[in-house]
Design brief:
The chain is mainly β. 9% of the residues lie in helices and 41% in strands. The protein has a single domain, classed as Cupredoxins -  blue copper proteins (Immunoglobulin-like), CATH 2.60.40. The protein has a 5-stranded mixed beta sheet, with no helix packed on it. Strands 4-10-9-6-7 form a 5-stranded mixed beta sheet, with helices on one face.
Amino acid sequence: MLAWPAAAIADPGHDGERAYGEPGNPKKPARVVQVVMREADGKMEFLPNRVEIKKGEQVKFMLRNNGELDHELVLGTLAENLKHGEQMQKNPDMEHDDPNAKRLAPKKSGEIVWKFTKAGEFDFSCLIPGHREAGMTGTIVVK
């Protein structure tokens, strides 16, 4: 029996459906939700930090980093984001090339298109070390 290193095994469902949905189709209509990333009064935050979505709805998150530091938005379950955050502590220069994440330099913008196929409460966080702990987290409620 062959043993593969853990890093060589693909994340199941990496580009497909996950607990909180699947990558959206940019060619289809989507509700636009603007999210600002910033630092203010000694903390870091997303505005808004709570978004309500209908099950089956496709959303285009229009992201804008108004801060002075790099920030990212990573969609996931709370458990996934906490686990990923631990990996980021060990590898702070880790960069994402995932449909559920976008990292932005100061004063830059970007977007994530996502289709929320399952009801529940999900997380979005900045997983750059120290940022989530400084307040950069939010909740997505899918009804």
